[in-house]
Write a structure and sequence with these properties.
about 30% strand; about 230 residues; single chain; six-stranded mixed sheet
């Protein structure tokens, strides 16, 4: 059964006086517990599609359904609640809160969810250990390398066990060993906890780990291959 479905999604941006057709009618179904990579050249529309699936951007037309919720029928409060409780995000630009420490950034989503203080602290420490950041709990983002910041971002996305994780170029700022470690951890979570992962990526290693590869070019899906 599909946990994510898009039907004829179209999205156009204005760049100066020029219209950019980011998506030109995308139909995509992703079943629960899939491990999917959206691949394609820069500007192909893969990040736009990821943002629309996550409710961070709205399509000009078409239908988006996530976990049986049709976005067009939801108000902003309900959509925000769905994002908070069902979707984990990993952004290419990290989107960490600069004034918070690593552990506070990881705890933040759980704080919004109302998880008790000791539980969220213990879970945040454990997940930071898992991504190789033991001893960095109190470091703020500016005190961490790009790779370390990305690991905090991944930890934050997966710590609350969301139904879906959307990851935009999750390995872009990591060396290959660290990137592989993160992918193995996400693969384990996918298999053991049935969390659905959808990546946008240029990274051949992510494509290799993905069990389904959806190729996007010029705003259209041009290939959809299950391994």
């Amino acid at each position: 059964m599909a946990i994510v479905e898009t039907k004829d999604i179209k999205k156009t941006y204005l760049q100066g006086k020029m219209k950019i057709e980011a998506l030109r009618g995308v139909d995509l179904k992703v079943d629960k517990a899939e491990f999917v990579a959206l691949a394609g050249p820069s500007g192909s529309g893969k990040t736009t599609l990821l943002n629309i699936i996550g409710g961070l951007d709205l399509p000009d037309s078409g239908i988006v359904i996530v976990d049986n919720n049709e976005f067009a029928k939801m108000n902003q409060t309900d959509l925000a609640s769905l994002r908070l409780h069902k979707i984990g995000f990993v952004f290419q630009a990290f989107n960490l809160i600069p004034v918070l420490s690593a552990i506070e950034n990881v705890e933040y989503v759980m704080l919004l969810q109302g998880v008790p203080k000791m539980e969220r602290h213990d879970r945040a420490r454990a997940i930071l250990d898992d991504v190789g950041l033991e001893g960095k709990y109190d470091s703020r983002p500016a005190e961490l390398s790009g790779g370390q910041q990305q690991r905090v971002a991944v930890a934050r996305a997966i710590v609350s066990n969301p139904a879906i994780v959307l990851a935009d170029e999750p390995t872009a700022n990591l060396d290959s060993k660290t990137g592989q470690g993160l992918l193995l951890m996400m693969e384990k979570m996918n298999k053991e906890k049935k969390v659905t992962f959808i990546f946008s990526t240029h990274d051949s290693m992510v494509m290799d780990y993905a069990r389904r590869l959806v190729t996007i070019k010029d705003g259209l899906i041009v290939n959809d291959e299950t391994k």
